[in-house]
User: Fold this.
Amino acid sequence: MAQAISARGKLAARLARHSTGIIASLLFLAPIVWTALSAFKPAAEARLPPLPPWPTTGVSLENYATLNSFGDGLWVSAQNSIYVSVMTVLLSVIVSVLAGYGFSRFRFPFKDLFFVLILSTIMIPFQSILTPIFLVLTRLGLHNTLTGLVGVYVTLQLPFSIFMMRNAFDAVPREIEEAARMDGAGNATMLLKVMLPLVWPGVVTIALFAFLGAWNEFLAALVLMTDQSKFTLPVMMTALQSGRFGAIDWGAVQAGVTVMMVPCLILFLALQRFYIRGLMAGAVK
Amino acid sequence: MTTITASTTAPPRARKLVGAGRRQWIGLIYVAPAVALVMVFFVIPLGMTAWMSLHNWPLMGEHTFIGLDNYWAILRDTRFWNALKFTGYYTVVVTIAIFAVAFPLAIFIEKPRPLTNLYRTFFFMPAVVGFASASLLWSWLLNVDSGLFSPAAYDLGLIDRKFNLLATFQPAFWSIIAMVVWKVAGFTMIILMTGLQSIPQDLQEAAVIDGAGPFARFRAITLPLMRRTLALALILSVAGSILAFDQFYIILRGGPRNQTLTAVYWIFNQSFVSFKLGYGAALSMVLLVILVALSLIQLWLLRKPEGLD
Assistant:
């Protein structure tokens, strides 16, 4: 009898648990799924009631086409975003791997000062130094260029990614290096062939954070990119949504938001454990 | 094989000295690109912010030194003080709201059970979407005519007139809170989860044997042992909220009636809409001092309490 009750109690608890989980999941996922589905509605359907969320009169790419006809087009902004994000990933990985290795394995003048300097940038928000960044870029001839934006984004990533890489290199036993040195490995071989494979998970983590950071950044891109052909996706979409190019087409907004969200979601789903690793590193620090 | 013997038999001190002499400059070369970037895009702009804040600095034309005049002007800038007040209010409300949602979620997904990983992933997904994307998405959801909430409620017969959530302060403010909680709660949840997982299981079990109920255990074990994690989650939430811009710019444009201007929004406005760069720099300095002060308080919160691990 008692056993039957407790079994029933367990079942009830499990049911309660999963219904909570499912409802909460729906709340978190609904806006994403809803937007992605609505983006495939034909334009005429956008004036109909918002329920149901999926297209009822056939799947259409009309919204994407409309979006592409705004200003310089979806594709130009998407290319800008891809370029900026990929360059940010490449450069922040190169710079952080080098610096992480340097800070982990060498002694040199001003080492501690430089390390603290780089880490302390996390305390001061870039939002408060945006005006002079604008002037510095102008002075360097990088005003209104994607290269300038990449420079800013890479710098923003440095405190996190250098900290991450230094810890990754610290975790590699020195014996491995000494053995390779004895086998005649030079500096380049040492870093590329011996060390890099061992710190690879750290590299994936910083690359992922660099991509998400650059792909999603808004304020710096809004301020530094004045030429419409240089807009990244968030800036282009904001111009569209504010009605700067005529009446707001919400179907096109949904299509654009979908384009902005999908790469982040795919990368996250594919590289979840690297993302969590990065969060932990941040949390332990 | 030979390498191991060679490295263990070599006199350690001599080897170290040779290494040190040769290695020094190489290390500097490795960190040079990072240091150069931080100099160009951080240290110099930071110095310039301080310097510019003492000038009348229009976008075009000569800038002139005016001493502390910008700072005196800030004292009379009611818009800025209102923006600061609003930012503070928003920070407090949104942080409480985020914790109120994230803490139960963290407890819910803490233990590995069937489907927990799936729930974790689902709850977290909005957190990887950018703030700009999330804001654009919600600007559609919240739109009075073509959005979801108001038209759907109207179509379902729940309201008899479509209601514009963004037209007046209270509904607009709470709409933003809802959006930010949706976007950020998963992130805070994961951080709190790591804290929960680091609590030794036997401590909880011992407390159960001592007859402590769930609430007593939460107060006596969970909360004190999560002090550092809670402080970290708090820091991230507070720092992020004080710098809030995207959602207020994209969804509300500072409206209704400039009631939702945040501090960063006002700095953006003065610097890049009115092109008063010197004044914008002075405003930035004020915000920067506030944030550094908060960071220091937070570091003080983060230091390990005595007697614990």
Observations:
- Chain A touches chain B through 93 residues (CB under 8 Å).
